[in-house]
Amino acid sequence: MSIVILTLKTISYAITDPAIVLLIIILGIFLANKNRKTLLMQKMILGKEQNSLLELTLSQIVIGILLGTIGSVILTFLGAVFNFDMGLVLILFVSLILYFVKPRFACIAFSGGIVGFMAVVSEILRNLYPAYFDKIPNFNIDIPSLIAFIAVLYFIEGLGVILDGKRGAIPVFSKIEGKIVGGFSFNRSWVVPFAILFILSNAGPVNVADTIPTPSYWPILNLTIPKESIAKAVISLIPLIGLIGYNTVTFTMNKREKTTCSGLLLIGYGAVLFLLSQIAFINVWIRLIALIFVPAGHEAIFQYERWRELKKSPKYISTDGEYKVLEVSKDSPAAEMGLKSGDTILQINDKEVKEDKDIIDLQNKNGNFIWLKIMKENGKIEEVSYNKMNSYKRLGIVFVPRLDGVDEDSVIVKLDDNDNFHDIINKFKNGNDKKQD
To answer: Residue 199 — φ and ψ, nearest 5°?
Structure first.
């Protein structure tokens, strides 16, 4: 229990030390700038901002601290340890290179997997052909610790996606099989403070104040470092600050379904990695297989979610006489009437909805009474009304239009797998400019 208490103290230090607080503030400013773009999108699409800048940014910091605390306690309890050496620096360097190759590859699954793979290959070559490869540098990375670290990162990322991933989601449109479909774009990041165990020294006099008392059963994780060496080493908890993120688009699920699905996949991926970290100590070949799986498993999740989007029917699509509600603006007349994303509008003021213009006229209506017949997602038919409309109020719904009689370029933002949130914003801005012209 003492090591858990020390971990919590280190996290407390991390969020109160002036230098680290300054770094958190800088990251907060970076996130706030991204959130301003989210708010701009909300205003363009929904008529007004659905979240405050403070809400979007502060939640990324507060939830990030919670996630970092959970992850740090798990790692220290397991006994994942690292050395101050070229291995960690190399992981950061590889991440930077991967970012310029393809931004989505600039994550710990790829950079950590690649560096770990290089470390294991160098170990194999030194063991098999010592005369030729004895001068290959030793990366000095405990592979089980590295895999466990990656596993915990994706475990807490999955938790973050489930807890906070849908906040600030933006309605988007695309064209699939000749029809306009609605969906959501997600873009969330969290500032995560970590307390990581580092081996400072294995020999010589030590400062007792630097040592961490560890229980007899520790470490729980099966390491490649002998326990005798761990017992003699000076181990310190050192705070680090990281940034984890979630960026995707869905046309087949609602916001909660998508974030829950993605979050559970990430948690499951983390669980598999943890199991691999527990057997990676057995021999070098198992470590090699485990490190191949680290990026391969991450890529498999991406490809599965992409395949699922392509194979599953779009959730938000309008048909003749029925218009699907994609999103409902917060505190709007539509929200007060109980309309929700996924509802279907059947009638407006006793008249069937035959074309997009009927709903557009409704949103511009100056009368104070509106009556709607809608079908909920469970198939239940309901009648709702609102009697406080005026010329200053918007109904507050984003519906999915049909292509019939609609200028396709004015409503469709074509998205592909290589689009990031910045690309989506630019496409919406360009589409909005064309519409105004």
So the answer is: -85, 120
